[in-house]
Structures are given as C-alpha cells and as structure tokens.
Amino acid sequence: MSDDVPQIPDASIPEMAVRKVDPAHEPPAPRRAMAIHAHPDDQEFTIAGTLAKWARAGSEIVSVVITSGDAGSNDPRLRADSRPALARLREAEQLAACRVLGVKRTIFLHYPDGELVADLGLRRTLTRVIREVQPEVVVCGDPTAHFYGNSYINHPDHRAAAQAACDAVFPSAGTRLIFPDLLEEGFEPHNVRKLFLHGVEKPDTWIDIAETIDLKIAALKQHKSQVGESDIGRRMREWAAEDGKARGLASAETYRVMVLVDEA
Ligand SMILES: [Zn+2]
Predict the structure, then answer these.
(1) pTM score > 0.70 for this model?
(2) Do the domain assignments include residue 19?
(3) In this structure, is residue 175 part of a structural domain?
(4) How far is the CA of 103 from the centre of ligand 1 (A)?
(5) 2 alpha carbon – ligand 1 mean position (Å)
(6) 41 CA distance to ligand 1 middle (Å)
C-alpha cells in the first residue's frame, strides 16, 4: 500500500455510501481499553492488530479471558482430569501473546471452557471487572453472529462471552443500583464510552493494522497448543487484506462501533 489516497470502491457497497462513513477517519487510540473474550487465542485471531496499535500509541490495554481454554484439545490421551494442566498451559500461552502485543494486564476468570452461558452470574462478574478497571473502550465479539460463511458455526462460548460483555457494558456497569452488592464492595458505576464489536457482518469502522500485522501473527504463534505448525501467518494476512479491501487498506480489522457516551 502506498501513501496515496486510498481507493474507495463505494459504488460496489452502496450501504456504506448511505451511511456516509469517512474512510479516512479512524477512531483515536483510547486511554484505556478492555478486550473481553471466551478463550485464550480469541483476541489474537480477531483484534490483536488493533490492540498492538493502541498499545504502541500509549493505550493501557487490559485483556479479560473468561475461560482458560481447558477443553481446547482433542488429543485422545487427554481425560477430564487433564483440564487443569491444559488451562495452565493455555494461560501461559495467553500471557506470552499479551506480552507481544503490549497488553498491560490479563485477567483470567476461570470459567469452564465449552460450557459458557451469558447468565446473570457472568454479567455480574464482568460488571465488577469493568467497574474496577474503568475502560474507555470495550472490545468484544458480535453476540448475534451464529454463522460465518458456510463452514463455521460461531462457538457458543464466543456468543455467550459477547452477550455478557455487551450486557455488562450496558446497563449494569453504569447503573448504580444494578448489582447493589458490587456497590457495597466499593465498585462505583462506570460508563464505557465506546463498544467495539468485531466479527460483524456490516462493519462501520476500519482500523489500519499494516504496522502491527506482524505483531498479531507473532502473538498468535504464542498459542503453540492451538496453531501448531500451520501456516497461520499467511491466513492472517489474507484475512486482514480481505477486511481492508472495502476501504483500500492493505491490512485491517473491522468493527461496528457503538458510541455510548458522546464526546464532550
Ligand atoms: Zn474461541
């Protein structure tokens, strides 16, 4: 990609033209961002380029990993009692990936992998974490995404994590008398300003990750138990190129951004 003005094939995507998205506009790096996902490696597959870019720009990034991926192997030698060891391995891989990206803090919530439900307990836990960390931006998946293409059913843990994250962002993080026990524990309400949803069918925001796609791949490769020897780098570059195409970007990650608190 040269420094020329990006080509914008608006004619081919009329719904974007109608929305009048400014292709040159990219949201500024937030002061503090929180990524919320179901499994170790979810953020590396999806938003790691954005997180690395924001971290380089001075953002404080906090990653919340709800399960520790302790069902993430079909090795026939594994049994139920193998799960704690697998969880420890995957947490170590996640921490290594976060170091590559410049994530300041990683919070593991230790829910069981493969059984996640967006219930009130999970919503309360995420509300507490959001109130404690007080992020300006929360990044999570699209809770409405059931299917991608013709070959991937979105993991139910991904949907549950995304649903609980959205529900924690609004209304419970910012509403004083929801989960009043949190108030008694000292967790004052906090209003998240923007919610970035990834994996959406119709994105409205593109983050140029040309400068951090290498970090994204390096971080993903820390998940050795998951990506193995596969040519994951090539796949990630293809995804990023595909996502950038609509805005003339060589590499991008795409989002739908909910602005919950208007800029003053
Ligand atoms: Zn996952």
Answers:
(1) yes
(2) no
(3) yes
(4) 19
(5) 34
(6) 7
